Amino acid sequence: MQLIDLKGLIRLVNGCTKVSCGPFKEWVTEVILTVQREGSYTFPEARTESADQAAPAAVAEPGAPVSYALPEQVADAIVRLEERNVRLDEEFAAVQRESLALRRESLATQREALAAHQATARAMERIAEQLDAVLTERSDGSGGSGGPGGTDRQAPAPAPVTQPPRPTAEAVLADWKTRMSVTEDVWAVAVTIAPALAEDGELRQPLESIASRTGLSVHRVNECLRFMRKHACIDARGGAPDGSPVYVLRTAPH
């Protein structure tokens, strides 16, 4: 059963716009005023006979039920509310049935996925066992002496690879002077990046950092770097994770 407060009742009644709802609205107004004034409202006793045919009113026996007249509009409203409640209950039951069906389908899917995972795990275990067996056979077959006389010989250790010495910044700048005609802006950029290239072998600095150190604009720094790439002084190697370009030193051809 659904309850409605006074505010909701007034809004419900005012929502009735049909002319036939006039008596019902007047009756609701009377009920509200009576309840506010007296604290309760009592339905009038029902009359089942006309005034001409009405017999003298008999005295009701103590405890006998009393019938009351219910306005037709109120009865219709109650019937409509009950029908609406029944429809809502049916819709809610249908939603619950659909939800239960979806849960069953989800459970079946999870069971299938679990079975597939278990089958995959068993297959991986078999593969691991086979690999262990192969490795064991190979290790058993490769044992024994390595040459005549039963003496094992070890392979000679590889000769250490010697890295060529890195050039100094002065040597890098001297080499660049022989490759390009150096202007003031290009020389400022070259002097700024040469130490990093000579020490680290690569340059990972934002163009803004080079521009702030040389006093040039970012666009001009980019042009100077392109000029140095054109004259085989440096090579581009993509970009760093922070977006900075990466340049490496191009060594002189032998």
Q: What do these coordinates show?
A:
This protein has helices at residues 6-14, 22-38, 72-141, 169-179, 184-200, 207-214, 218-230; strands at residues 202-204, 234-239, 245-249. The chain is mainly α and 254 residues long. It folds into three domains: 1-42; 68-138; 169-249, Winged helix-like DNA-binding domain superfamily/Winged helix DNA-binding domain (Arc Repressor Mutant, subunit A, Orthogonal Bundle), CATH 1.10.10.10. Residues 157-167 have a biased composition (Pro residues). Residues 141-150 have a biased composition (Gly residues). Residues 137-167 are annotated as: Disordered.
Tag the structure with descriptive keywords.
254 residues; three-stranded antiparallel beta sheet; elongated; mainly alpha; Arc Repressor Mutant, subunit A
Give a quick rundown of the structure.
By secondary structure, the chain is mostly helical.
Question: What helical percentage do the residues reach?
Answer: 55-70%
Overall SS class: mainly alpha
CATH topology of the largest domain: Arc Repressor Mutant, subunit A
By DSSP, the count of extended strands is: 3
State the end-to-end distance.
98 Å
If you compute it from the alpha carbons, what radius of gyration comes out, rounded to the nearest whole angstrom? 49 Å
The number of distinct structural domains comes to 3
Query: Which term fits the overall shape?
Result: elongated
Tally of helical segments: 7
CATH homology-level superfamily of the largest domain: Winged helix-like DNA-binding domain superfamily/Winged helix DNA-binding domain
Strand order of the largest sheet: 1-3-2
CATH class descriptor name of the largest domain: Mainly Alpha
Reported for the largest beta sheet, the result is:
3 strands, antiparallel
Helix and strand string, N-terminal first? Answer: HHHHHEHHEE
